[in-house]
Write a structure and sequence with these properties.
It comes from Glutamicibacter uratoxydans. Helices cover about 35% and strands about 20% of the residues. By secondary structure, the chain is of the alpha/beta class. The structure holds flavin-adenine dinucleotide.
């Protein structure tokens, strides 16, 4: 067992924990990062499969994600644009695949009008919200106690419009059925991305990717940490704490520190035993944030055959097994990669199938319903399965159950003595995204530095500028 003494110990080497560690070490503090897995990156994870780059976890960046943009600028990481040329495919509830162009789904004019009405309503609500404080929205309690499913139907009689709008937040973002979370949680998702318009615009929200891959961002940060800082294969299962500091117990490293950044997803807080136990409020709060569930389907072909047919690869099919598909070919690769998404109850169905062969057959058939027979024969087929990952337990991220956001949210970012919580799932802007993880990492570092150095913390700091830039501003 290695016994270390540091100013700060960080638990979790995902983008949030690593960003916090990077900022703290740049500010001259000694840091140790204890990571459960044998790799950095957490919910960002990239593998090569038969020569193709597969982003098993997070991958896209959108123009509003300026916290992440400032980090990659600092690291010298470039981005590339997702392939977007050509027509899209929409699969109707009856199962017809319609090729279309433009922003509107090819549905009845009255449904387009209803969808636009709902989009406008969500835009208005999002504009009234400070994403850092969604519980201060003038209608917070009302919106947090109605499910998004019922909220949509209270505002429109058009079932297709409700399903289509539901898709953008339920299957598309929170990856829970729309009856499982509140309208306030849905408005937060929109507000965290700038507006609902941004969320429904796939060219905005799924705009660009990292040339290093998204996991590459964490790898590059880790390279810049001083020696003897990062310790992989060290799950922390025991944390002693008092006003004087903490002792974090990893598998073969124990760290005594003045402060701890707990940078694991909120659903895993209770995986750690705290001595003494956390206060009542945190023990209760942490039971109300749960992971969504989504399967990311990766299928690699000899060529991006859909492009030859004038298609972008973008497909939408609310209420179908595979709800969205995109061209996911990595920068410079000649093969063609499709990524499909299977969310919540549809994901349950896929995992309950008997064998991998059956899963492959069912999923490819569902994708072929959009893009034709050639879809059935990929050279690589892989399903991202974060639900089976002990150190994540779902995808993409955690959100509150009905009523939880306005009840527990106001104190979710308060530190408990020396313990600071840092996760993309606690962010306002960039909520549930790598951008939010980076912003939270920087903010946690700033709060700890203020405590350690006896200076004041600027509550308005949004985590976009690095702490050095902020100090020099
Ligand atoms: C399939 C998928 C697709 C996604 N797509 C996108 C996308 O396109 N764009 C985007 O911006 N975001 C996307 N996301 C979300 C994004 O990946 C997360 O928001 C981000 O990784 C969160 O960073 P984090 O540091 O807060 O947490 P994590 O990335 O979860 O990192 C937490 C770390 O803590 C470690 N850990 C857990 N428990 C312990 C313990 N007890 N002791 C030590 N270590 C522990 C974990 O192993 C992990 O490394 C996606 C996520 C998934 C799963």
């Amino acid at each position: 067992m290695k016994n270390l003494e540091r100013d700060v110990v960080v638990i979790g080497a995902g983008p949030s924990g690593l960003t916090a560690a990077y900022e703290l070490s740049k500010a001259g503090k000694t840091v140790a990062v204890l990571e459960a897995r044998d790799r950095v990156g957490g919910r960002t994870w990239t593998e090569q499969m038969d020569g193709a780059t597969i982003e098993i976890g997070g991958q896209w960046i959108s123009p509003d994600q300026t916290g992440l943009y400032s980090l990659i600028e600092e690291l010298g990481i470039e981005t590339f644009e997702r392939y977007k040329q050509g027509k899209s495919v929409y699969r109707t509830e009856a199962g017809e695949a319609i090729v279309y162009e433009g922003d509107d789904f090819p549905v009845a004019e009255s449904t387009v009008a209803e969808m636009n009405k709902l989009i406008e309503l969500m835009n208005q609500l999002a504009a009234e919200m400070n994403p850092d404080k969604p519980w201060e929205h003038p209608r917070a309690a009302e919106l947090d106690t109605i499910s998004f499913h019922h909220f949509l139907r209270n505002n429109s009689d058009d079932e297709t419009a409700c399903n289509n709008i539901g898709l953008f937040i339920a299957g598309g973002m929170l990856t829970k059925p729309a009856h499982a979370f509140s309208a306030l949680q849905a408005v937060l998702m929109a507000s965290s991305a700038g507006s609902f318009d941004n969320l429904v615009d796939e060219d905005f929200i799924l705009d660009r990717r990292m040339k290093t891959s998204m996991q590459g961002v964490s790898i590059e940060v880790a390279k810049r940490l001083p020696e003897e800082t990062l310790f992989l294969n060290n799950p922390v299962l025991k944390l002693e704490w008092s006003d004087e500091g903490v002792v974090a117990h990893g598998a073969d490293v124990t760290v005594k520190a003045k402060k701890v950044v707990l940078a694991v997803p909120p659903n895993l807080y209770s995986r750690i035993s705290y001595f003494p136990p956390l206060p009542r409020w945190q023990q209760v709060t942490h039971q109300h944030q749960s992971m969504g569930l989504v399967i990311k389907v990766h299928a690699v072909y000899e060529t991006p055959f859909w492009r030859e047919e004038g298609l972008s690869g973008t497909c939408f099919g609310p209420n179908h097994l595979v709800q969205e598909i995109y061209d996911n070919t990595f920068d410079g690769e000649e093969t063609g990669t499709l990524v499909g998404f299977i969310s919540d109850v549809e994901a349950d169905k896929v995992w309950s199938l008997e064998s991998d062969e059956e899963r492959k057959e069912v999923v490819l058939k569902a994708m072929a319903e959009f893009l034709g027979e050639k879809t059935l024969d990929p050279k690589v087929f892989y399903l991202s399965d974060f639900g089976s990952e002990e150190w994540t337990r779902g995808a993409y991220a955690t959100s509150y159950d009905l009523g939880g956001l306005h009840r527990f949210g106001p104190t979710q970012n308060d530190n408990v003595g020396p313990i600071y919580f840092s996760s993309s799932d606690l962010a306002g802007e960039g909520f549930q995204h790598v951008d939010g993880a980076v912003r939270m990492g920087r903010r946690s570092a700033a709060r700890i530095l203020a405590e350690l150095d006896g200076t004041s913390y600027d509550e308005s700091y949004d985590g976009v500028a690095t702490l050095t830039e902020k100090a020099n501003a």
